[in-house]
Structure formats: C-alpha cells, structure tokens
Here is the input.
Amino acid sequence: MIEAGDLRKGTTLRVDGNLYRVMTTTYNKPGRGKATMQVSMYDLKTGNTVNRLWGAEEKVDNIYVDNEDGEYLYNDGTFLHFMNKSTFEQYECATALFADDIGYLKEGMELELRIFEGQIIDYVLPTKVAYTVAEAEVAIAGDTAGKVTKRVKTDTGLTVQVPLFVNQGDVIEIDTRDGSYLGRG
Here is the structure.
C-alpha cells in the first residue's frame, strides 16, 4: 500500500481488481481543506485512460513488478513477441500496450520489460535508437532562414522530422522519449 500523495508516473496500481499504470499526477493543496492527488491512469487490460481523484493520505494498492531485460522478436499483427535474454523465456503482449511506441520497435532491440504474473504489463524503451531512413522527401532549396526540416520514414515505419541534409539510406538516431532527431548514427 502507498499513499496517493506519493504516486509517480510509471507506478503500477491495482484498483477495483484491475491493473493501471500511472501516466500523470497533479498534487493540489488548497488553503483550507485536505490535499488531493488527481491521477490519470492507463488501464493495462482495456487500453483506456481513467482519471481518478484521491485524498493525498488515502492508501492505494501498488503492486511490485519484475523488471527483465528483453529482446523484441517480431510482430505477428495481433501480438508482439519478446524473449527474456537470460532465461530465453518468450512473452507476448497485445500491440495496444505499445500504442504509438510500436514504431520504435525493431527486431533484435533490447528493452526493459515489466512482468506481473507472467504477463508483460509495461516496458522501458532505450533512450536512443538508430534507424535507417527508408523514405525521404526531396529537399527544396531556398527557405533556409530558420530551422528547416523535412519528414522522413524509417525502416520501422516511424515518421520523423529531420534536417534537410538527411537522405534515403542514411542511419539516424532518434530519442524515443519524444521522437526527436538526435543526429546521424
């Protein structure tokens, strides 16, 4: 059990029998009255976002998960398949768990998996990953007074804004936290 005032992003909770991952928290302490914690949570089963308000001193049921080093194997269209690097045990999870982050996955990528009762419930991507540019817009000479970028598509299908000098076939590094271009890989 943990006090609601101590909740942070990434904490896994059990509320009414369902598992949730905390996405954002907002602490509110009015001049009079009790402090509250507004929490936005991701339902790990349904993929819905739920907002909840607790008193800062209320107890909530946080659960402990195992962190394992995993390797991304493949996507079969419905499930993503991973392997524990030390035990070679394989896991699968619904593609909905990764949502928009699915474009960052590439075969052989190492990442941290969070496992609860034999199921993947969360993950941590590496901060910096190199991708090959599969498609690139043609750069237009001229308008170069400011920071000029163009859109490219990587070999995993991820769309990224990059400087004009990046071409098809180049290897680029992307920050997985915000999808920004870091440099050539």
